Amino acid sequence: MRITATDNILLAGKIEQDFAQLEIYVYEKEKGNLYVHHDILLSSYPVALEWLGCDFGAVEQNTGARANIGIVATMQPEIELWDLDVHETVEPRAVLAGSNGHKDAVTSLQLHHTRQNILASGSADKVLKIWDLQTQQALFSYTKYKDAVQGLLWHPTEESVVLSYSGDNFLTMFDARDVDSVQKVKLPFSIESFCFFASDANRVAIGTADGGVCIFNIKTFKLESGKPLKLHDDAVTGLACNSHNLLVSNSLDSQIKITNLADMSVIGEQKTRGDKLFGCSMHPDVPTLFACGSSIGECVV
Questions:
Q1: Residue 199 — φ and ψ, nearest 5°?
Q2: Is 195 within 8 Å of 240 (Cβ atoms)?
Q3: How far apart are CA 278 and CA 83, in angstroms?
Q4: Beta bridge partners of 260
Q5: Mind giving me the DSSP string for 147-212?
Q6: Can you give 57-122 as a three-state secondary structure string?
Q7: Nearest to residue 55, comparing CAs of 115, 111, 133, 129?
Q8: pLDDT computed for residue 217 by the predictor
């Protein structure tokens, strides 16, 4: 049961018919060993996940006691905060809900990069909210979407700027301190995923529903090329960029591909046994370690 300093921890949401749970995996890189350490039963299907490494009662990460908190968005309007260190826990430590909460399924989450008590959430209720985890209250709501908010990202360097996309294929960027700063553009394809370049905070890779990837410049607020680069045979459900200027994409076609962003050339690909592949992440400390979910109920690393 003991987790060592060399273990990598992976958090995944699992759905099996009417059964939903949060799974905490351990990955031992040296042994190539991946297993579920323990799991937590959920009352609704998980849609988006975040991990918080400190107690959410603290104002800033560096002043808070170390903790392992799983933040879970589900098909319900509530956002649940679970203590991952407690085995056989039956209820979340806290729930973000109430009169100032979302009114429909929460579809996307992201913690702020530096202010770890600040969480952004997007919902099918066509609202993006910014929460203070310390008070468990919504600080800000942006309500001018015409469709469900399907994805969101905090800007890597501008700490109050949020980029998002909605079901009507609008890309929206605004500064939470100035709602009149909103920029919007409708893209000529269906957006499935996106991520910022690790090497350039002005550029965003966008994955499309038909297997393409294109580059968007948020400084000019325009696409850098007219036609997306066709990388996959089906929807690009996950994108992650590492510090080596490499883009990793996964898709419903079961393929993982590595693209060099310098010249947009594919330098590696792997067909997995995971069938359809879902949301992904890059290891924050190991730029060559990547993980995503799959339709066979197992994580792919």
A1: -100, -10
A2: yes
A3: 24
A4: 246, 265
A5: S-EEEEEE-SS-TTEEEEEETT-EEEEEETTEEEEEEEEE-SS-EEEEEE-SS-TTEEEEEETTSE
A6: CCCCHHHCCEEEEEEEEECCCCEEEEECCCCCCCCCCEEECCCCCCCCCEEEEEECCCCCCEEEEE
A7: 133
A8: 97
**For residues 82 and 90, is the Cβ–Cβ distance under 8 A?**
no
Neighbour tally for 110: CB within 10 Å: 19
Closest to 13 in 3D by CA, of 50, 37, 47, 51: 47
Question: Which tens digit of pLDDT belongs to each residue from 15-61?
Answer: 998 899 999 999 998 888 999 999 999 999 999 999 998 888 765 54
Task: Report the pLDDT value the prediction gives residue 233, as an integer from 0 to 100.
Answer: 97
What separation, in Å, do the N-terminal and C-terminal C-alpha atoms of the chain show? 21
Q: What global pTM score does this model have?
A: 0.94
Say what the pLDDT of residue 59 is: 55
Alpha carbons 52 and 47: distance in angstroms, whole number: 17
Beta-carbon neighbour count of residue 161 at 10 Å? 19
Q: Is the dihedral of CA 172, 173, 174, 176 positive or negative?
A: positive
In the predicted model, residues of the chain with pLDDT beneath 70 are 58-64
Q: What's at 217, amino acid-wise?
A: N
Q: Which of 206, 94, 112, 223 is nearest to 150 (CA)?
A: 206
- What is the pLDDT, as a whole number, of residue 77? 97
What is the C-alpha separation between 111 and 71, in angstroms, rounded? 9
286: which 2 tokens? 């190991």
